[in-house]
Amino acid sequence: MRLLRNLGSTLEMIKWEHSVFALPFALTGAMLAAGGWPAWRKILWIVVCMVTARSAAMAFNRWADARLDALNPRTSGRAIPAGKLNRGFAAGFTLVMAAAFILAAGRLNRMTLLLSPVALAVLLLYSYTKRFTRWSHLVLGSALGIAPAAAWIAVRGDLDPRIVVLTLAVVFWVAGFDVLYACQDMEHDRQFDLKSIPRYLGLDRAFWVARAMHVAMLILLAWLILLFRLNGFAWTGLAAVAGLLLYEHLIVSPRDLRRLNAAFFTMNGVISVVFFCFVAAALLVRS
């Protein structure tokens, strides 16, 4: 029973179910690189890389933020502040997942192996950026945004500037919903001198920043479709993403954050899956 409790606490710590955010965009990058389905071996190791890298980043975040999480009523129930796991376990888990990520990257090609420490550095850096910059949201966006570019490199062994457009789209998408999510902690951030857009700009302006970031995402996705000359399926996917983003912004407001978790967890997971499915359809029909 203790083993099961520890397993449950570990899965809660790394929020494994949120892998759905970036994984579909990584698979989109892989399919764009291959012009269709990549080899199944490539897909397998890309998925392993995504899961292990994200697990390392989440465990490190919980380790780095343990004291701050304990002081925040919203996060005080997390595994480490609640005493379900300790910081030593989180540190060890981070090292194991980081090593697994590098090994998995080495199974793809030489370039992914050489760049794997750089990817880890970006992923782990985020946990400290809110201590010194209000733009930490963009760093988090970059941590997830490198996924499609990394997947492209995994398939082709080089980097095409066109895939960077998808990376930038993911950066603005993630940064936008992280700005919204940070609205919950505005007073906590002010009290403990943590940096965020809501802390400096207030809720109303923070919402406008998030909206602008999501408009930028849509523009970049449209550019991506043009660059790869994708067909109507991709444009339908873009329209669906636009509708989902609009709904996300309609169900929350600066004066009503009650449905923020629904916007953050449910809608953003759906957005990434929907766009992947429509791009995959566009590529498979063309091929």
Computed Rg:
19 Å
Amino-to-carboxy terminus distance = 51 Å
Derived from helix and strand composition plus strand pairing, the structural class reads mainly alpha
- What's the number of extended β-strand segments? 0
Strand content: under 5%
CATH hierarchy, class: Mainly Alpha
Largest sheet: none
Question: CATH topology, anyone?
Answer: Tetracycline Repressor, domain 2
- In the CATH classification, which architecture applies? Orthogonal Bundle
Query: Share of helix among residues?
Result: over 70%
Please, what is the average pLDDT? 90
Oligomer: single chain
How many domains comprise the coordinates?
Answer: 1
N-to-C order of helices and strands: HHHHHHHHHHHH
Describe this entry's structure for a reader.
Helix content is 77%, strand content 0%. The protein is mainly alpha-helical and 287 residues long. It has a single domain, classed as Tetracycline Repressor, domain 2 (Orthogonal Bundle), CATH 1.10.357. The protein is globular and about 55 Å long.
Characteristic terms for this protein:
77% helix; globular; Tetracycline Repressor, domain 2; 12 helices; 287 residues; mainly alpha
